[in-house]
Amino acid sequence: MDGTLIDTEPHWMAAEIALVEEHGGVWTPSDAAAMVGSSMSVSAALLQSRGVRLEVDQIAHQLNTAVGAAVAAGVPWRPGALELLRALHAAGVPQALVTSSFGVLAAPFAQTVGLFDVVVAGDDVTRPKPDPEPYLTAARLLGVDVRACVAFEDSATGLASAVSSGARVVAVDSHVTIDPPAGVSRVGSLARVDLPTIERVAAGETLDLRRSV
């Protein structure tokens, strides 16, 4: 969700900076960028190390509240994301939203969009990304073999989760530059992705869509 489908990373970064500064610490944009894709428990531990004197659930509440308020002002879609979701839905392709964000953010977003068959949020699993559990759970709930799935991710943590699950994976360039492992396709924007492209990835091709296909 965050960074891949909607451009919420600036909202997360702003919320983290505000929270750390509220407790007298310093949190830079590079610190925030290093946390892209991390689970809430990992993020909270890093924030605590910078002086945030709150429990994990309190940190989660403050960050989710701040980001939720920002998203409520208007869904900041990444280029091509909504169009691709609609095309997949029209073609009858089952879709799962697999995110490190908690359900308090993921569920309202998914309900508003109305195109996902399954939602797996960060607090829905015991072992969040980079563990494969989120993607394995999504495939199980969809009733499909995870090896027949194509996952889109924009962070090293998300890529590790998707790759280790056995899914075919596409790395989407976003707020952080990632170097995907062998066998992972790459795209500069979801605006470059269509149904035939996804079929090629699902069939086993590794594509670099930063160049002409």
Automatic annotation (TrEMBL):
<dbReference type="Pfam" id="PF00702">
    <property type="entry name" value="Hydrolase"/>
</dbReference>
<dbReference type="InterPro" id="IPR023198">
    <property type="entry name" value="PGP-like_dom2"/>
</dbReference>
<keyword id="KW-0378">Hydrolase</keyword>
<dbReference type="InterPro" id="IPR006439">
    <property type="entry name" value="HAD-SF_hydro_IA"/>
</dbReference>
<dbReference type="InterPro" id="IPR023214">
    <property type="entry name" value="HAD_sf"/>
</dbReference>
<dbReference type="GO" id="GO:0016787">
    <property type="term" value="F:hydrolase activity"/>
</dbReference>
<protein>
    <submittedName>
        <fullName>HAD superfamily hydrolase (TIGR01509 family)</fullName>
    </submittedName>
</protein>
<dbReference type="InterPro" id="IPR036412">
    <property type="entry name" value="HAD-like_sf"/>
</dbReference>
